[in-house]
From TrEMBL:
<dbReference type="Pfam" id="PF02687">
    <property type="entry name" value="FtsX"/>
</dbReference>
<comment type="similarity">
    <text>Belongs to the ABC-4 integral membrane protein family.</text>
</comment>
<feature type="transmembrane region" description="Helical">
    <location>
        <begin position="415"/>
        <end position="434"/>
    </location>
</feature>
<feature type="transmembrane region" description="Helical">
    <location>
        <begin position="721"/>
        <end position="746"/>
    </location>
</feature>
<keyword id="KW-0812">Transmembrane</keyword>
<feature type="domain" description="MacB-like periplasmic core">
    <location>
        <begin position="17"/>
        <end position="237"/>
    </location>
</feature>
<dbReference type="Pfam" id="PF12704">
    <property type="entry name" value="MacB_PCD"/>
</dbReference>
<keyword id="KW-1003">Cell membrane</keyword>
<feature type="domain" description="ABC3 transporter permease C-terminal">
    <location>
        <begin position="725"/>
        <end position="841"/>
    </location>
</feature>
<keyword id="KW-1133">Transmembrane helix</keyword>
<feature type="transmembrane region" description="Helical">
    <location>
        <begin position="362"/>
        <end position="384"/>
    </location>
</feature>
<protein>
    <submittedName>
        <fullName>FtsX-like permease family protein</fullName>
    </submittedName>
</protein>
<feature type="transmembrane region" description="Helical">
    <location>
        <begin position="815"/>
        <end position="834"/>
    </location>
</feature>
<keyword id="KW-0472">Membrane</keyword>
<feature type="domain" description="ABC3 transporter permease C-terminal">
    <location>
        <begin position="273"/>
        <end position="393"/>
    </location>
</feature>
<feature type="transmembrane region" description="Helical">
    <location>
        <begin position="440"/>
        <end position="460"/>
    </location>
</feature>
<feature type="transmembrane region" description="Helical">
    <location>
        <begin position="774"/>
        <end position="795"/>
    </location>
</feature>
Amino acid sequence: MFRTALRNVLAHKARLLMTVLAVTLGVAFVSGTLVFTDTLGKALSGQSAKSYSGVAVSVTSYGQARSEEGRKEGDPGISQQTLDKVKAVKGVGSVSGRVSGFAGVGDENGKLIGTGWANKGSNYAPVKDGKDPRYTFTDGTGPVKDDQVALDKETAAKGGYTTGDKVRVATNGPVREFTLAGVFTTEDGAVNAGGSLVLFDTKVAQELYLQPGFYDELSVAAAPGASADRLLADIKPLVDGKTTKAQTGAALAAQQAKDIEKGMSSMSNMLLAFAGISLFVGVFLIYNTFTMLVAQRTKELALLRAVGANRGQVMRSVLAEALVVGALSAAIGLAAGVGLAVGMRSLMDTIGAKIPAGDLVVAPGTIIAALVIGVLVTTVAALLPAWRTGRIAPVAAMGSAHLPASAKSLVVRNVIGSVISLAGIGVVFLGVSMGGDGRMVIGGGAFLMLVGMIVLLPLLSRPVIAAVRPALQKVFGVPGKLAAQNAVRNPRRTAVTAASLAIGLTLVTTMSVLGVTMGKAIDRMSTDKLKADYKVTMSGGVGSLDKSVAETLAKAPGVKAVSPQAAGYFKIGDNFHAASGVNPAAIGQVLNIKVVSGSLDSLGKGEVAVAEKTAKKQNLTVGSALQAQFEDGEKAALKVGAVYEDLDGLLSPYVIDNKILAAHTDQQFIPEVYVNTTGGQSKASQQAVIDALGKNPAMTVATQQDMRNEMGGLINTMLNIMYGLLGMALIISVLGVVNTLAMSVFERTQEIGMLRAIGLDRARVKNMIRLESVVISLFGAVLGVGIGVFLAWAVGSTLTKSVPNYELVLPYDRIGVFLLLAAVVGVLAAMWPARSAARLNMLTAIKTE
């Protein structure tokens, strides 16, 4: 029976190819994802281990602790005295004190080199031999003077800098000019991620990032023969355990490896989710393929039964075919996945995200996963056709009598599908009623809806396709009428084929509607709520601006209004509340704030403005008194001077004069500064703001359109990734349509011969098959789009409170493109079956049983 199954597999090469391709795509995505994340994780872990190879013990400071009153307690870092104590411990070879923070280097045009979030600054910390073990200099030396810096080799090359050149370096304040003392190589993760690293003299780095005489980290090297564990035990009593953590270099490297693995998991899970979608869609194709193969071999199977094969043997022979196909698909998919991983690695290098050198990792688990997935998916999909094979009576099969599904089985199916669909819709509405906490519930309801839709599709296909039959007949004549009738002749098969397209387009439509709606909400926020000409931020939107930025811009010629957006908080009663520190004289000029009661002028008197929703929740009105405790623990009585409409994303629920907020904060976090100029938005005005900041490469001066483009670009990038990943599911859908039409042509060979005999020429036969394909494709597409819009509404309803100006927007142009693509899919999928049908010999076809 196994040899028979093997011969059957090889006898239907076209069907085999389509099935293998469907499974291969899914397996390739799974194995490629696993290989890529394993390779990347091992490379990063190896890099981490290498960077800590000479560190016996590492001591890390987490900054000052806060008392219950909010006051900062303890040292801001690890003191020089503590470093000296650690250095005196027996067995310590050397100790390096480290401080670090953001530092950006500009190229010859003043543009920032590297990725904003990965641009770092640190100190050069030579030990006994006068060298810093973390860095290997290829030219020059480390900085030893206040006006010197060293650059990593990649950054120096990108900026065209050589030893002795003047380099403009920016942190979060004014740009400073340094002399390049040396160029080095490093295993630092930021540099390998496409960023940059600037080394300062230790005193300069402490002034920039911490306080003179303090460090963020100590790296302890052991003397020959000294034990890292022994050193750790001796060093721990010397440091403050509340605000610092001491651990061995090996433990730190292991912890970083775990963190890297955890970081990889989110990307891996996303890619695996799309691989799962492709495999799920592939199940329908495999099911159709084996249904078709069984139908083509009814006589053969009957003969096997007649010569002694029982039902179990016949069923196992079909499953054996599935096993062979699955194993072959898994092997090809694994090979393709390795190639995909290599391609993803090259792509990362191309976009500037460098990956450390390392061997490609094909773990045993990846090989097992590929084989199990390929074989399991194929076998599960073939179970039902195999079971039906065993139920065909030998006499009926010998007569080629295909046994249609009984009316009873379709009734049972429709009842089950209705129950599941209604349950899914109910769960979705439950999630909607839960607001922001209901998105996972909506996801569960969406899954039930899709399952219910798949079960109900045979029932839905008849009325939906019947509704378009008159139009098809009127436009295309007899071929159109026949195409509509043929599309519902086998509702089960039509349903399975349409399901794959419906699933893909449900996901695409949901994401498209949400993406376009979010983009419009951002647009409205930019135009309706934001009056500022420009927004100044750190490049990449990471980090805080120095308070000097707003002060500098306020004195610049041509600047009309400047307001920082300082993020802070204070405590009222037992609860902490976010507060925005602003310039009272300018905030009304840069933001469109609708005051419900009171006046924003009260901010200049030291009063506080409260968002409307917060005011209602806290039962506050103009004139209400608040007892607030600030970050430093100081308490003050604040009076509510205004209540305003919420500006989520632009202002915190409490707004106060930044002079008051800054007086109670050591280092303010200022993510942005808004600016208005006398000339309004223009290239000249924008350049004037850039010049006022000293052409700082670490800062971005964005127009309103830039702000829209930034957020819109992020949304579009996510959508493009989604379209690309889901395109694979649609490719499998095309194969499914091809299979269905090929099966339809096979079953109707005699009928097509008769149609040819009574006058239907080859062109109209082709047209009939094409229209049948388009009808099936559009049937699935329309269902997918409809469910996708419904789910987008459901998810969007949970965002209305967190996203200002959220209103559902239907992108009719994109939906139209989706339906057009579905029609194109139908035309392309019909090419081979239509050609086969048109080329049938009329007399031979009529004689076919």
